[in-house]
Amino acid sequence: MFQAALGLKKSSIALALVSSLWGGHVHAALFGDDEARRAILDLRQRLEQSQNATKAQLDQIVQQQNQAHNQALSQMRSALLDLQNQIEKLRADLAQSLGAQERLARDLTELQLRQKDTLSIVDDRLRRFEPIKVSIDGREVMMDPAEKTDFDRSMALFRQADFAAAQSALGGFLNRYPTSAYLPSVLFWLGNAQYANKAYKEAMVHFQRLLSDHPTHPRAPEAMLAISNVQVELKDTKGARKTLEDLIKAYPASETAATARERLPRLR
Question: What are the residues whose beta carbons fall under 8 Å from the beta carbon of 55, sequence distance 6 or more?
């Protein structure tokens, strides 16, 4: 548009110059040299004025175009800057969102692991209280896991020949579990631990209790043999002989009865 306007201005100027020159020749021919000079001077003056006016208009147009161009560039630059700021903000928001999602995912994973560990611990603790099946003297019974653990620990001490600790552990077991399926065995081994510790009277009490409360228990013949040993330690030879004789009568087919038969001749 700017080039078209400039071309239009130049065409107008050329036409005006031709017209003026043509008119000037006519006047020169009609009015003589002086008048021709004045006409030429006047024509030059009008041409300069026209050129100056055209130049001024062109300068004004160029200035307006430059201003419009600069304004458009400024607006475009501002718009691009705003767009860049918006992009940076969106990028920051996205990074923050992704970071939050990663933290949430990490927290969720940690929570699930803690929950799994907690459930495992709870299950382990519950299993400690759940009754377990135990085989005792040829029969299966359900019992508290802690009860079996205490019995096994007490017997481990006895097997290690730590009879003082075994006596304490078996005595404590007897107090904690007075109706335990292990009771006959506890009475028997507690009596043996006391015998080893030379607590003969206490040992006698527990052996006799085993015989009176559980006469059919597999350890009953051995308990009678142990009673005879206690009587010997207490210098009750007569009582020891009678106990061996009662053992042979009560459990004649047992291996313990055979042992009693071998010992009787020595108790004279």
Answer: none
**In this predicted model, what pLDDT tens digit does every residue of 188-201 receive, in sequence order?**
999 999 999 999 99
3-state helix, strand, coil in the chain (%, to 5): 85, 5, 15
Q: What is the largest CA-CA distance in the chain?
A: 193
Contact 206, 191 (CB under 8 A): yes
At which residue do the structure tokens 């860049």 appear? 84
Half-sphere exposure of 104 (CA within 13 A, CB side): 6
Dihedral sign, Cα of residue 180, residue 149, residue 225, residue 234: negative
Chain centroid to CA 227: how far? 62
pLDDT tens digits along 129-147:
588 999 998 889 899 999 9
| 96 CB-side CA count, 13 A | 6
**Residue 261 carries which side chain, given as an amino acid letter?**
R
- For 235, phi then psi, to 5°, come to 65, 25
